[in-house]
Amino acid sequence: MTMPIYYGIKLELHSDVYEPAEDTFLLAETLEVRPGEIALDVGTGTGLIALLMARKAKYVLGVDVNPKAVELARRNARLNGISNVEFRLSDLFENVSGRFDVITFNAPYLPGEPEKAIDLALVGGKTGREVIDRFIAEVPDHLNENGRVYLVQSSITGVEETMREFEKAGLRGEVIARRHLFFEDIVVILAEKKG
Ligand SMILES: C[S@@+](CC[C@H](N)C(=O)[O-])C[C@H]1O[C@@H](n2cnc3c(N)ncnc32)[C@H](O)[C@@H]1O
């Protein structure tokens, strides 16, 4: 079996788990983690973002609602000999306690209800915003005082709407990276607690 290598991380893939794509790469290239930080990767998929953060972070937790993703991410951590990372099944923050310096989420954003495991990577509820809006409402309770959030989404789902939801949750959001694909822009939004 040939395994792709991204940013020096060797990955096993699975047909039920989102394969790293442009959105993953934009997040990987934009994200900053400082030595010693504690990080959380929501919707971890193959675990790539969590494994990259583990290079600098003291500890990383990766969660996913898809059990196949959790198993795969654990295998990918072992494959790369990375031990300061843990993966757990969780619907957003359901099985997450404590606070983090960095929280990442490459969110599903197309309108629709998931029917099989792989759909969870792409569809975010009837309007496409359900998962993102739930994430934004819950994320402040899991952020340290100076913590920051990196959220990836598409222009299709409404970037302005995301900014308003962050504002309502007491966070200030800013688009820090944008990549134009065929029919959409993929953006990375950095959100931090207001000073
Ligand atoms: C677009 S994929 C991103 C995967 C990976 N982080 C990456 O960047 O390649 C979205 C991921 O979010 C997960 N997901 C969807 N809804 C979720 C939820 N409510 N809680 C946790 N994970 C969720 C999906 O199973 C999928 O693995």
UniProtKB/TrEMBL annotation:
**Domain of life here?**
Archaea
Domain Methyltransferase small as annotated: residue spans: 24-165
InterPro entries xref list: Euk-Arch_PrmC-MTase, PrmC-related, SAM-dependent_MTases_sf, Small_mtfrase_dom
Q: Which Gene Ontology terms describe the biological processes this protein takes part in?
A: methylation
Species annotation: Thermococcus gammatolerans (strain DSM 15229 / JCM 11827 / EJ3)
List the GO cellular component terms.
eRF1 methyltransferase complex
This chain belongs to the protein called: Methylase, putative, hemK and PrmA related
**Coiled-coil portions:** none
- Name one molecular function that GO assigns to this entry: S-adenosylmethionine-dependent methyltransferase activity
Reply yes or no: does the keyword Transferase apply. Answer: yes
The alphabetical list of record keywords is: Methyltransferase, S-adenosyl-L-methionine, Transferase
